[in-house]
Amino acid sequence: MSIEMTKADVPGVPLLEVRDLHVEFRTREGQAKAVNGVSYTVDAGETLAVLGESGSGKSVTAQTIMGILDMPPGRITGGEILFRGEDMLKMPEDQRRRVRGDKIAMIFQDALSSLNPVLSVGYQLGEMFRVHRGMSRKEAKAKSVELMDRVRIPAAKERVNDYPHQFSGGMRQRIMIAMALALEPDVIIADEPTTALDVTVQAQVMDLLSELQRDFNMGLILITHDLGVVADVADKIAVMYAGRIVEHAPVHELYKRPAHPYTKGLLDSIPRLDHKGKELYAIKGLPPSLTAVPSGCAFNPRCAMARDVCRTEVPPLAEVTERDGSPLGGRTSACHFWKETIHG
Amino acid sequence: MGRYVVRRLLQMIPVFIGSTFIIFMMMYALPGDPVRALWGERAPDEAQMAAIKADLGLDDPILLQYWNYLVGLVQGDFGTQIQSRREVIDVISDALPATLRLTALAFLITAVVGIGLGLLAGLRAGKKTDRGILFLSLLLISVPVFVIGYLYQTYPGVKWGWITPTVRDSENWGELLLPALALASLSLAYVMRLTRSTIVENRRADYMRTARAKGLPQRRVVGNHLLRNSLIPVVTFLGVDLGNLMAGAIVTEGIFNINGIGRTVYEALNAREGATVVGVVSFIIIVYLVIALLVDLLYAVLDPRIRYA
Amino acid sequence: MPEARATIGKKEAVPSGGGAVPAAVAVDAGPAPGKPRSLWSDAWHDLRRKPSFVIPALIILLLLVVAAFPGWFTSVSPRAADLTNNYLREPELTHFFSPEWLGYNQQGQSIWARMLYGTRASIVIGVAVTVLVTVLGSLVGMLAGYFGGWVDALLSRVIDIFLGIPFLLGAMVILVSFDTRTEWTVTFALAFLGWTTVARVMRGSVISIKQSDYVAAARSLGAGTSRILLRHVLPNAMAPVIVVAMIALGGYITAEAVLSFLGIGLSEPSISWGGDINRAQGQIRIAEHILLYPSILLSITILSFLMLGDAVRDALDPKLR
Predict the structure, then answer these.
(1) Pairs of CB atoms within 8 A across A/C
(2) B 219-248 residues with CB < 8 A to C
(3) Taking an 8 Å Cβ-Cβ cutoff, which residues of chain B contact chain A?
(4) Of A260, A220, A316, A263, which is closest to residue A53 (Cα–Cα)?
(5) What is each CA distance from B214 to A96, A99, A143, in whole angstroms?
(6) Which range of residues forms the domain containing residue A135?
(7) Which band of pLDDT confidence, cut at 50, 70 and 90, is reported for residue C11?
(8) Per the domain annotation, does A213 fall within a domain?
(9) Helix (H, G, I), strand (E, B) or coil at C258
(10) Per-residue pLDDT tens for C243-280?
(11) Which residues of chain B does C261 touch, with a Cβ-Cβ cutoff of 8 Å?
(12) DSSP assignment of C25-48
């Protein structure tokens, strides 16, 4: 099939790299810059968590990587998406399609609406093998049962012909995971994979996902707004706000010492047992409309530290260092006052 | 499923009795005496007239007449024509093949062209193609079938000479094409609009995004995922519409001179030939009810979320 | 380290369907400024700037004027037959509004005058059937939907019975028993068979409204049945009914034309487009204008009502766009 794609890891070239991506939406209110210069990378076996509120551009970035962005109203206005060093935005659609599902797969939030209601789960799983591997209906069905076993769906053989609505929420999300894993892709993008589930089921599904990621040595992009999920499974975090990455750091570093007031606010708003009885912190205000992003730093109207420069100049994504200037593991922050934020 | 079918069949009984009763009463409320009409201008032979009436049961009270008619219907007896003394069922079976062919062709056109154009419009929603198809559907609904019939007859038929303007041989599918197109026009427009709106509705569904993320070819995304879901309401509509097509043949058959059910009932109406009218209408009601039941069952097959208890 | 899971912002507590980014963009824009408007005034606000509403509305307005005062547009009587007016002569299209501009029919009557006077029959029947059907259908649908149980079972069977009768054929059977058929006879026949559509729509929307929280709230506050029906159920159930009725209006005009065309609709001396088209069919090969012009006007009329209904539906229910 795609010979180019199956070649082994090239040293020095990330598995997947997003470079300065810009995506706009045409809305009634005007142009909305949903993604405004986003860059990140993910390597084999690595988990990148992309954190942000709705409208921060995290899902749009993911859909652009997958090539499933609705265009129009969406429009890619700049940047590159490199898979093993090759820009997917420049690939012909047919080649791109072969990468989708096979090399890069996606897990969606709401499995009930994301699975086709009138096709059996066996058919929907088997489609992956039939389309990408040219298997017969029968072979594909056997593979589907295997997959369902793999994601620990009980009585897979009997249930392979059932329809999505006949499964529980957790089981449906397992089917989504199975579908994404079917062809053992190199990268999985999971867009809020546990948000629609009951709290008790969330942990099970998340554990399954990270276990499978380890087993297959895949790169995982985990899109979420749930800081709790992130801490347990991610290696590094990219925090997004109003279409930009505002902070990028290894996960434990970020929790210990946030270098952006927004991240700091997020961490402070987590309820903690040792703070019981005290009022919970909340970031004041609402995220901005993407058609009317505040000038300067987009976060300035909600930021306690905001000064004049924040209202006029967009802060660049600067490297964060220790007080003495020694490097901090490639951490970056888009705040004029990152020093004050991290070093207090 | 079995119990559902039985329940639906039981529900059909009062509906069937009710509809045929209304038609029966309306037809027999007609002024004029059909038996007296046998003599035309001449003076009728009273004894003979009474004998014929007794023979046909026409001297019974109207409710008893209806009861006898219903009992007959159950046994497949649709009554007897007064003038010709022919069995109505024979009249129907003579006329039925032409109507069935016409209806089948119209149905085919409705399904293929309607779904095809609806799909095209839905996929290009908001673009020029879509607006063009929507306008075409509005035209097809607005221009009454007899006007469309005449336009088809006049232009390709008479003026350009592409095709014979009237049907001489109802077994010739080519000659049936124009009348079928005319008959199909209204249903075609509705199917186009319905398909378009369900396509537009489903096009942005989450499972469509999944299908694309799976790397399926466009053909498969549209054919196996989008159409499979969007056609459920369309199939339902098509089924129910089959009955409408049969009833609508009355105008088309008249214009194109086809000897079918429509012509038969039209002539019978003008001749005040009640038995034929009631017979044909009862027949259409039966067809309609059976199709409605089949469509309901088909719905459960097409949409696994529907379960009949 | 966080000791409990937290979510960012209150907005994502109930996440919207994954790909709804454009929707999220719209949500972030916040509530529209100004006072909240009712469904109807909101729809009107939308409609009056849309050509797909304004154009058919103006045409219908014009048709209503013509139907009421056909004499304003022509000085000739539609029944004045003068055989010196040769129907084979080509219409003189440049003589706008003159009796001969659309030509004459076989009786030497002005086609223009007959079209004007025929408007009344179509409009009167279309509007009258729609009004009757809406009132009767709403009543039956509301009773069936609100009371449920055996009332619903009974009324639903009655609806099924009338649905079982083929519309056109049924109307023909009714009408053939009248020797002279006026606008009102035809109206009666069409309404008698046509009310079921509205009844079904009404029943469906009443059932869904009945289960809504505000009706439950009203009931818990002790509101009586008639108050709930009139104050809460009826106003909310009317929107879909009115849309269906507006779209059906065009269909009733078609039905009248088809019936008149078949010779079982309006009888002489009533003037109707369908009847004129019927009488023109013999001449179609030699004088097609006799058939063409009334057909065009008939089609424009139906199209206008249809487009109006479509536009109103879109304005009332943006989901259906």
Answers:
(1) 116
(2) 243-244, 247-248
(3) 204-207, 209-217, 220, 224-225, 228-229, 232, 302-305
(4) A263
(5) 11, 9, 16
(6) 16-234
(7) very low
(8) yes
(9) helix
(10) 888 888 888 998 988 888 888 878 777 888 888 888 87
(11) 144, 146, 251
(12) HHHHT-SPSS----HHHHHHHHHT
| CA–CA distances in Å: residue C69 to residues C74, C118, C186, C256, C267 | 10, 12, 22, 21, 22
Structure tokens at A73: 């109203």
**pTM across the whole model:** 0.81
C176 at B interface, C-beta within 8 A: yes
Chain B interface mutation, best of A118, A137, A144, A191, highest count of B Cβ atoms under 10 Å: A118
CATH code, A201: 3.40.50.300
User: In the CATH scheme, what is the code of domain B95-302?
Assistant: 1.10.3720.10
Give the residue among C98, C126, C123, C129 at the shortest CA–CA distance from C112. Answer: C98
Closest CB to A53 among C9, C26, C29? C9
My answer on whether A126 and A70 are in the same domain is yes
- Whether A70 and chain B come into contact, CB under 8 Å, resolves to yes
Give the CA count within 13 Å in the CB-facing half-sphere of A121. Answer: 32
Spatial contact of C173 and C253, defined as CB atoms under 8 Å apart: no
Single-letter amino acid code for the residue at A330: G
Which pair of structure tokens corresponds to residue C293? 């012009």
A104, A66 Cβ separation under 8 angstroms: yes
Between helices C234-261 and C111-147, what is the axis angle to 10°? 140
Q: Would the CB atoms of A66 and B225 count as touching at under 8 Å?
A: no
For A181, which residue in chain B has the nearest alpha carbon? B214
The CATH class given to the C62-74+95-320 domain equals mainly alpha
Whether the Cβ atoms of residue C320 and residue C314 lie closer than 8 Å to each other: yes
Q: Counting Cβ atoms within 10 Å, is residue C257 exposed (0-12), middle (13-18) or buried (19+)?
A: buried
Identity at C79, one-letter amino acid code: R
Contacts of B248 in chain C (CB under 8 A): 168
User: Structurally, how many domains does chain A consist of?
Assistant: 2
Residues A313-317: contacts with CB under 8 Å, at least 24 apart? A317/A244, A317/A245, A317/A248
Residues of C in contact with B295 (CB under 8 A): none
Torsion of CA A175, A178, A179, A183, to 10 degrees: -170
Show me where the domains of chain B are located: 2-88, 95-302
Bridge partners of residue A187, in order along the sequence: A104, A219
Query: Is A71 part of the contact surface with chain B (CB cutoff 8 Å)?
Result: no
Structure tokens at B270: 């003008």
**Chain A residue whose CA is closest to B301:** A118
Q: Residue A128: its chain B contacts at CB < 8 A? A: 214
ipTM of the complex: 0.83
Phi, psi of A293, deg, nearest 5: -70, 135
A229 and A299 assigned to the same domain: no
**Alpha-carbon distance C307 to C54, whole Å?**
10
CA angle C131, C134, C138 (to 5 degrees): 150
Asked if residue A245 is part of any domain, the answer here is no
Give dist(CA C182, CA A287) in Å, integer: 67
Whole-angstrom distance, CA of residue C23 vs CA of residue C321: 16
Query: What's the pLDDT score for residue C137?
Result: 92
User: Would the CB atoms of A127 and B216 count as touching at under 8 Å?
Assistant: yes
Please state, in angstroms and rounded to a whole number, the distance separating the CA atoms of residues C235 and B157: 52
Cβ of C164 within 8 Å of Cβ of B19? The answer is: yes
**b or e along A17-54 (b: 16 or more beta carbons within 10 Å of the residue's beta carbon)?**
bbeebbbbbebeeeebbbbbbbbbbbbeebbbbbbbbb
Angle between helices C234-261 and B145-152 (to 10 degrees): 40
Predicted confidence band at B51 (pLDDT cuts at 50, 70, 90)?
confident
Which range scores top for mean pLDDT: A169-178, B146-155, C31-40, C82-91? A169-178
**Chain C residues close to B147, C-beta within 8 Å:** 277, 291, 295, 298-299
